# Entry
Amino acid sequence: MDLEDEIIMLPGPVPVAPRILRAMSRPMINHRGEEFKEIFGRIEKGLKEIMQTENDVFVLSGSGSCAMEAAISNIIKNEKILTIVNGKFGDRFHEIAKRYGDPVPLEYEWGDPIEPDDVRRIVEEEKDLKAVAMVHNETSAGITNPAPEIAEIARENDLLFIMDGVTSIGGIDVRVDEWGVDIAVLGSQKCLGMPPGLSMISVSERAMDRMVESPPLYMDLKAYKKSADKGQTPYTPALPLFYALDEAINIVMEEGVDARIRRHTHLASMVRDAVKEWGLELFPRLNDVSRYSNTVTAIKMPEGISADELRSRAKKMGVVIAGGQERLKGKIFRIGTMGNIREKDVLMVLEVVERVLRG
# Structure
């Protein structure tokens, strides 16, 4: 199978548009020069529009987990933070927090909805909490969590709210300023539709004022702010990926942020409708359809075929889909609908998956 013929429908990485790939082939430039400063300025402006924020926005040469760790390590030093876990990446927030402070976990079964009343109860019971960390869109379980409600609880109790928007920003309606998100992170290889390797982070003035002394050197967000004021990064940026980000943002702006979100919603609904037609069951089982992720759909494995066999046979037919992770391994499969994919891509993938399921 020629890799160029494959359709990758994962919850990241995603297919990359040819014009983004071409942008990456540009010659290197002086990352302390005026040309980079112009690129940096366009990126900053575009990211603020996509994230719907006026907060500072920084670009880190590292994956989404890099930005997650930057968010925690700049805020927490031997202090308490509430970590909300209902999937693999909520668990990652908790594991990061254990390295820098004293996390107080609120744990659910993977895929179970987060209840704001549970969060409010812990916030009222626990003393000396500094922040709340939560994943907005938990791709490991195909569920979108109630970020606006949790942000409101945090703000009411004078806590910082840290939100992983790695797989939601740019594909699901996210309003960083309106919701009151103090720190939001996203990853390059998700809804922005570019290669892995960059992560973006927005930081409120409130969060900047409460940062710890001596955070990790490479992820020191105050250093990023100081450099950003000059149109630079504090350390050598991954220039080809900055070129890609610049072009990816151009594509987002040409489509329009609202239109892009509507497209993601439509593509996810196509997958959910197909699952119903196949007689399969979505994972998790939710009463509120708006809680299902619009960037990845998780489906319970039917009897008679294993997740590995399903994925292997689909791959031979040119389609790459995801299985479950860790405790959900073998129990679900997942179809991503994020980035610059089109309706015809989804139709082709659904046809292949249906053929495999029907044997």
About this structure: The first helix runs from residue 18 to 24. The chain has 13 helices and 15 strands. The CA atoms of residues 29 and 288 lie 50 Å apart.
